[in-house]
């Protein structure tokens, strides 16, 4: 019996000295089973530039950028300034981060009075 206990103790000690590998988090793109890590950026937000600077350091899989359509194109003839969005895409491309644009808040000129969804949505906000 003492012999068995001695071997069990030796095995336990040897197992304790085995190197342990670090687990790596699954990484992926939106919609995949591995999804990964991401963040939202708001081009009109106070911290947009700081968010872009952090984008490269954080090694994210994706970044979602919310685009407020009404503020970008108040009229159909408006000249849209894509400078911030272009910078965001360029930064994401350099860091290997996928980009998802979320187009929100359609302007009045882009909707119709017969639109069954828009009046209900506008009443929510």
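^ Assign residues to that structure.
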């Amino acid at each position: 019996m003492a012999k068995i206990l001695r071997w069990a103790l030796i095995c336990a000690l040897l197992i304790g000295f085995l190197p342990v590998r670090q687990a790596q988090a699954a990484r992926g793109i939106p919609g995949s089973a591995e999804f990964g890590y991401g963040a939202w950026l708001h081009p009109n937000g106070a911290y947009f530039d700081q968010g872009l600077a952090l984008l490269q350091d954080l090694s994210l899989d994706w970044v979602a950028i919310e685009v407020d359509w009404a503020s970008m194109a108040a009229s159909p003839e408006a000249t849209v300034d894509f400078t911030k969005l272009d910078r965001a895409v360029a930064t994401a491309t350099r860091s290997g981060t996928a980009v998802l644009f979320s187009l929100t808040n359609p302007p009045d000129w882009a909707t119709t009075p017969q639109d069954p969804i828009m009046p209900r949505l506008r009443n929510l906000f």
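The CA atoms of residues 34 and 114 lie 41 Å apart.
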